[in-house]
Write a structure and sequence with these properties.
The protein has helices at 21-33, 63-74, 107-116, 137-141, 147-167, 172-179; strands at 2-6, 38-40, 43-48, 51-56, 81-91, 94-98, 122-129, 181-182. By secondary structure, the protein is of the alpha/beta class. The longest helix has 21 residues, at 147-167.
Length: 184
């Protein structure tokens, strides 16, 4: 059993914001596979075969609360998780698979590390930057994409979705060599 988890904020006003890159990618996968979500585990949740799809409803900063619920219920290990989330240090159109690491200042990842008591989970970072520091960071990540950025996000969400599904079946080094780059 493995879980693909997209991070974001649940209200519709956040739909096209930088902080919802994880939701955008997982929703792309769900749409392409015609998978329907229900509400469970403080999340929008779906299970197909041995794969769980999760969009936490806890808001970004409390993402760990939803993640620990599925980890405990399904007896998952951190290595069974792929967390998909926004990265302000990467340009839009850039992807980065990582096996583990620090929270890098990302509050959603910080919450997951806290609740799992582990940094050893898989990540797929989706570039939403670059963040130049010209505005408050919270305002930047909650900012809606421009029309041009939205087009890029639609394209990169398809590529990231393919990578997330490939993660279910291949080794991590292959994913990193294939997907870790600026695509657009």
């Amino acid at each position: 059993m493995k879980a693909i988890i997209g991070l974001g904020n649940p209200e519709t006003k956040y739909n096209s914001t930088r902080h919802n890159a994880g939701f955008i990618v997982v929703n792309q996968i769900l749409h392409s596979k015609d998978i329907r979500l229900s509400e469970k585990f403080k999340s929008f949740f779906a299970k197909k075969d041995d794969v769980i799809f999760l969009l936490p409803l806890t808001y970004m900063n409390l993402s760990g609360e939803a993640v620990i619920e599925i980890v405990n219920f399904y007896k998952l290990q951190p290595k069974d998780l792929l967390i998909i989330y926004d990265d302000i240090s990467l340009d839009i159109g850039t992807l980065r698979f990582r096996k583990d690491g620090s929270d890098g200042g990302h509050n959603g990842i910080k919450s997951i590390i806290k609740h799992l008591s582990s940094k050893d989970f898989n990540r797929l970072k989706v570039g939403v930057g670059p963040y130049t520091g010209n505005m408050d960071l919270a305002n930047f990540v909650l900012q809606k994409f421009t029309k041009e950025e939205n087009k890029k996000m639609e394209e990169i969400a398809k590529i990231a979705g393919d990578g997330a599904l490939e993660w279910l079946e291949t080794d991590f080094e292959h994913l990193q060599s294939k997907y870790n780059k600026k695509w657009l």
